[in-house]
Amino acid sequence: MSLPAAPAATVAELVRGLAAKQFSSVELTRAYLARVAAAQPELNAFITVTGEAALAAAARADADRAAGRGGPLTGVPLAHKDIFCTEGVLTTCGSKMLANFVSPYDATVVAGLRQAGTVMLGKLNMDEFAMGSSNETSYFGPVRNPWDTARVPGGSSGGSAAAVAARIAPAATATDTGGSIRQPAALCGVTGIKPTYGRVSRYGMIAFASSLDQGGLITVSAEDAALLLGPMSGFDPRDSTSVDSPVPDYTATLTASLEGLTIGLVKEFFDDGLDAECGARIREAIAVLEKQGAKVREVSCPNLPLSVPTYYVVAPAECSSNLARFDGVRFGHRCESPKNLNDLYSRSRGEGFGAEVKRRIMTGTYVLSAGYYDAYYLKAQRVRQLISADFARAFGECDLLLGPTSPTPAFRIGDKCDDPITMYLNDIYTIGANLAGLPGMSLPCGFVGGLPVGLQLIGPHFSEARMLNAAHRYQMETDWHLRVPAAFA
Amino acid sequence: MEWETVIGLEIHAQLATRSKIFSGSSTAYGAEPNTQANLVDLGYPGVLPVLNGAAVRMAVRFGLAVGARIAPHSVFARKNYFYPDLPKGYQISQYELPIVAEGSLDILLDDGGRKRIGITRAHLEEDAGKSMHEGLPGASGIDLNRAGTPLIEIVSEPDLRSAKEAVAYMKKIHTLVRYLDICDGNMQEGSFRCDANVSVRPKGQEKFGTRAEIKNLNSFRFVEKAINYEIERQIELIESGGKVVQETRLYDPDKGETRSMRSKEEANDYRYFPDPDLLPVVLDAAFIDGVRASLPELPDEKAARFVREYGLSEYDAGVLTASRELAAFYEAVVRQVGGDAKLCANWVMGDLAAFLNKDGLEITASRVDAAGLAALVGRIADATISGKIAKDVFEAMWASGESADAIIEQKGLRQITDTGAIEQAIEEVMARNPGQLADYRSGKDKLFGFFVGQVMKATGGKANPAQLNELLKKKLAG
Amino acid sequence: MSLNRADIENIARLARLELTETEIPVYVDSLSRIFAFVGELDRAPTAGISPMAHPLPGLAQRLRPDEVAESDHRELYQRNAPQVEAGLYVVPKVIE
To answer: Which uninterrupted H or E stretch holds C12?
Structure first.
């Protein structure tokens, strides 16, 4: 396969090139659309490509730039995970249930990035309703990992990670409920950031588990993430859980020194489940950060091993309720000739949802039902408190936590489909941050057997600037994030 | 066996906010279907609720008015069930931590006594939409305009012992929410409705019987009839060897009976849990004090003042304070008349109420306003007309809209207070009725009334009654 | 903990999910495994620990001013609806 050349390596370069008139937004958009088209049969990263609208938006961006309007991001193409509602555009959430759903409104994230002048290329594939760690649960077929198309890209933001890894989109929005940004970023060798819960509005982001969901980005570099995070962050009066605190200029502190930074190595992250080679890459990365002046010490979060079982009570509980609105009445799939009301509900939902979504709805229905609520749901919310307290204690001893993002590199498509627990354990290192609402990142830190490995950073609430700073300093010393799979170079 | 009835009411009062509890849609009644249902009300994918501050303040007003505890920290929860009028598949309500808890109010019993009824809790929640069953063969149509209208659900303790008490309690709450300006109380439009939990037990038994819940009663009359039907049904059932089952029932006003709601038969498991889209509602003392300072004079306080200031009976004070508008009307009349509070009360509760009732009008739409009625009462007080003539004047005022004075002038209804004229009329009547006169003088005192009537007739009812009495007594005595 | 066929049927009924004959045994198996797995939570010492409903501590619900901020978009919003008549969403007869 041969793809037309990518116009640039990073969003930062696109920003500079557009400012210097090296290329127009229309030229850029055309080039990326061509790469999307060429890669689609191989990767299946997109569900919808909005070529015409993208070119029109690019032309407007060029006109704005010519007239001296707009900002640094004006004319930069990107793509949105298909979980974000986009006005007048198909928004499927990777599900048959919404296969024909055209959103009448824009998510706040989508509107914010449009306001900043970015150009949407289309909507990215994902695990159905963001429930999955491999992108195999999408109604629109699995996404393939650009580093090895027999392997999964991770999930649920698999389309976002694969698209950025293959450079068919310069950057992509994504969401993270239990690792859905960081894990695919790690498996595809790209940078992913899940901000603090409440930093990015959830309005227009189709809910999976409301107390865990957070929108974020998958980009080539930490610098790109810093450029894009500002416009998609901030207080949104439409989201009661959105936090009303000012958004710093994340680019301003990117290059600050790491002298005086204390990084905590979470003991529980370096467990038996971690692939030894992956562990070695993480230790090499730690050495790079130490050379930059960071101090490293071991910390412990003793309850962290309980994060996966906690998550698989809390997330399904919220999902079972959030997905009750898909009933075949106002939107979404409706079964043929329903016999009665219950038939309408049961068949529309039975047909419209895939196997994993149904599994989680049933799990959640059960843990909330009479007689089980205390034993499961309340118990899990108590353990969640313990896990949060562990993190809070750890941040008394260090500024950022570090560990692997995923226990192994990308696995083969179909390998973990049989046992949900095996699949769920992919998120063992990422779920903690969601339970505690903490910001987290994944950075490429090398390869094992030709497959990328991800390094995870976790910070205290609202420490995105510090985390991006550490990530950027690391990326100034390494070029793992600039590696492109040969087939897509 | 003697049976005792136990009733608890769950009253749903729609709060009189402009916009919905979690969205900016209008709450106005009567719009075209689904034109006041926005993305949040429709439960569209991705949308989120944001709480209306006015709804919170209204719930706190209610709580303070019934002496309840206002929760400094209350939580919204999701009540999960599938129903077409419930777009999200869950209702946002409050469960473990409601905003208002442990209040009470007093109802007046028929024997003049008072009874305190406990209010377990009052919580905020969203209303559901409506299902329409007409015009669509084999199908129902869903209108979600009402979905998301704020409600407080006021849950009483099982303290009510008869349908009458239940109605008195419901009326009391109805009066209160309108005083507080938190609900328009319009029962036809469903702004104020209740579910009644009814059970019976052998008198003296402590344990409650099995209860049935009668849903969606939207008039005081239906509440009374439905509860009485249900009591009888349950007693008959038990006495004939049957057992009451815990179930939801619907009152059919046409048949005057309750029947089991099959659709709700399936055991519900609402799977309540805290709504993760909403944060805890935290109210500090300053907020609560601010609401407290804005409370109007409440019905019980007003009634007590009427008794104290106007010398009214407790019953009359209760009637006159049944609505804030009626009380204001009454006080305006008293103020203008400058006294005669009891006479004013009789007029407001008597003729005025009768005419309003006949024409189906609210006090605010009365054809005779407070100033007009005060002018009429003033003419009785200053003896221009008698109370009896005043009734005719009032009727004319009601029909024509003219003032009391204009009608008195036009119809020449001014009372005769000239002693000479009254004496002349008395003499004429005595002359025309010599037989009765003789009888009277021989001891038949009862005939005094006959002479009063005759003189009144002769004067067209205009003779001043007190003067007439005095003069007549003298003349008849000879 | 292990679930049986009846458990799965009950849950599916509560969740309004029609399952095929082939799906039921799959869910009996996988949900049993999931509940065995989350059973680990039993071991956590949570006495005196309050449940955490929200990831950011100490935040309170914001109150919105009571303003009508919406106009009628029925036509647009009903474009996604499977069946509409006279502005109403149509469903099989609701029996009360």
So the answer is: helix C5-14
Asked whether the beta carbons of residue A350 and residue C19 sit closer than 8 angstroms, the reply is: yes
Beta bridge partners of B141: B132, C90
- CA–CA dist B327, B349 (Å, integer): 11
φ, ψ of residue A176 in degrees (nearest 5): -140, 115
| Residue B264 clears pLDDT 70, i.e. is over it | no
Assign B172 a pLDDT band (cuts: 50, 70, 90): very high
Q: Domains in chain C, ordered, with CATH?
A: 5-43 (1.10.20)
The residues facing A258 across adjacent strands are none
Looking at CATH, the fold of the domain delimited by B419-477 is given as Arc Repressor Mutant, subunit A (1.10.10)
Q: What is the pLDDT of residues A383-395, one digit of tens each?
A: 999 999 999 999 9
* Domain span holding position A177: 11-257+461-488
Q: Which of A206, A474, A24 is nearest to B44 (CA)?
A: A206
Cis upstream peptide for B74 (omega within 30°): no
Single pTM value for the model: 0.92
Of A95, A156, A221, A320, catalytic: A156
DSSP annotation of B351 reads I
Residue A336 Cα, gap to closest chain B Cα (Å):
15
Cβ <8 Å between B273 and A321: yes
In a domain, A450, yes or no: no
DSSP B202-270: ETT--SPPP-EEEEEE-SHHHHHHHHHHHHHHHHHHHHTT--PPPEEEEEETTTTEEEE-GGGTSPP--
Q: B182 pLDDT exceeds 70?
A: yes
DSSP3 helix / strand / coil % (chain B, rounded to 5): 40, 20, 40
CATH number of A158's domain: 3.90.1300.10
Segment B74-89, tens digit of pLDDT: 999 999 999 999 999 9
pLDDT at B267 (0 to 100): 63
Tokens of A35: 């790469």
Are A402 and A455 in contact by the 8 Å Cβ rule? The answer is yes
What distance in Å separates the CA atoms of residue B115 and residue B121, rounded to the nearest whole number? 18
The complex scores an ipTM of 0.97
CB proximity under 8 Å: A 92-131 to B: 93, 98, 101, 103-105, 107
Cα B252 to Cα A11: distance, rounded to the nearest angstrom: 68
- Domain coordinates of chain B in residue numbers? 7-204+265-283, 298-410, 419-477
